[in-house]
Amino acid sequence: CCERVNTGVMLPNFKKGRFSVVKRCDHRGSKRTVAVKHINKKLMKRDQVTQELNLLQRLQHPHIVSLVDTFETSSSYAIVLEMADQGRLLDYIVSWGNLTEEKVASYLRSVLEALHYLHNCRIVHLDVKPENLLVAHNASAQPVVKLTDFGDAVQLNSAHYVHPLLGSPEFASPELVLGEPVSLTSDLWSLGVVTYVLLSGASPFLDESAEETCLNICRLDFSFPRDYFHGVSQAARDFVRLLLRTDPGRRPPAGLCLQEPWLQAPPGDGRGRGEGCLDTARLISFIDRRKHQTDARPIGGVRSERWECWEAVLCESIHTPLNFYFFCHGTPRKTRKQAVWSEETKIRIFGLDENAVYVQPVNGSTGAQSEARGPFADHNSRIN
């Protein structure tokens, strides 16, 4: 019952998600300050909330935000969670300053330990991103990073679970973008993107549109600009490359990642790590952009934008590099854009209906057509 906590206030550094808001409250039973996640009943079904609760009730780890209580109001389901008193990781980093590779490695070890625990339980989080990494101070006033928000997490009881892509694709793995079955190492890709952000203050795949971001992800189109990675060690960059591999099977599991030398070096041992402070100025802009990003949307709102990444689906299905002309279904033809895949082959859209995009080669191939059904899922294209 809602009498277990006070009314609560919105937390300035906590989150408003696609389906929920988080408030700071006082838990009357335990006399402790807690974070209450209110999930809108109009936007999420009871069985979806129950799935998250069932997972949380099973989890107990120092680097995972723990479940305290649950209750229900007329308009929302409420999940009462332990309070991470220092807020989001990026806000904590910016406010304290003096970020070093040693600190980044320490934060990542905490997240990897949480993922290693989850993956041993065959649970994949599927929403590893900076907003879901919180910080609490322990009894010694040392920061402890905790993973939160299990709204997208699932138990992988089979090898063929396809997860819908909602909100921004910025931290999504290629398999999630393409509508292919996810794996435990889908979380490791996301952590690779988080690592890149922590080291540089920039996002490796982000582009002007969601479509172009998806393209960059599927093409593994990222680099380490000198201006952004000045003073960042080669070992840190190699760790990012280790996680950002298109093939999920080639990404190391969390347990092996924890054995990487860049993460294993003891405090004060600069072996393989950059010794100076990292520039956090870009992190401020990154945080501001993410706060104003329209990621808090119901499923219908996402689908209505029709930003399906058809070119990535087709490229994966046909197994050939493509120079693909596309436009989002539901928008005028004049908004077509060109996405360069190679100089050898070109195709163009010649038809479109509610469930399929039809394309046709441009460079000399006669009569060949392919069909890709979407969005993202079921990309069993056929060449006639």
Please render the helix and strand layout as text.
Layout: E1 9-10, E2 20-27, E3 32-40, H1 46-58, E4 67-72, E5 76-82, H2 89-96, H3 101-120, E6 123-124, E7 133-137, E8 143-147, E9 154-155, H4 174-178, H5 186-200, H6 210-218, H7 234-243, H8 254-257, H9 261-264, H10 281-291, H11 299-304, H12 310-318, E10 323-326, E11 337-339, E12 346-352, E13 356-361, E14 370-373, E15 382-383
Parallel strand pairs: 10-12
Antiparallel strand pairs: 1-2, 2-3, 3-5, 4-5, 6-9, 7-8, 10-11, 12-13, 13-14, 14-15
Top keywords for this entry?
single chain, 384 residues, alpha+beta, Phosphorylase Kinase, domain 1, Transferase(Phosphotransferase), domain 1, six-stranded mixed sheet, five-stranded antiparallel sheet, 30% helix, disordered C terminus, kinase, nucleotide-binding, ATP binding
